[in-house]
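Hey, resending since the last one bounced:
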Amino acid sequence: MPNIKLQSSDGDIFDVDINIAKQSGTISTMLEDLGMDEEDDDPVPLPNVSAMILKKVITWCKHHKDDPPKPEDEENMEKRTDDIDSWDQDFLKVDQGTLFELILAANYLDIKGLLDVTCKTVANMIKGKKAEEIRKTSTLKTTSPLRKKNRSARRTSGAKIPKLVHSTFKF
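The structure tokens again:
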């Protein structure tokens, strides 16, 4: 099988089977748009993906190389979070920072299967928890600057906020 070179944001070069790399819609498009092929020695730059994360993405893609393509009709797909296979569950037993970097990389690289499984993992982490529990175990800030500004404006203006607006925007 022919290989291509992928370059991470840290400058590390990964020699990857072209069929593995083409699981990424972004890489496939780059290869087509730039007219690159297997014989090119120039690496495909991936400025938004660190070497550590790219290595994990490549591992995931190698494991899933024979998976059938996901259906495009998302509207009729059942939204489930309990259908993560055991290999993916073990693979995604990483710290939150790594998990979120994998989500960003999967999104940037347009790898739908990886994006789905990483997002489902986060959904399972927060499912059934109260907001305060989620804040304690995550990197989320307790109050955003926008919420502080809105709360301050409410106090000083004396204006009453309709219940619909209040419940919709959670001031």
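The chain has nine helices and three strands.

Sorry for the duplicate.
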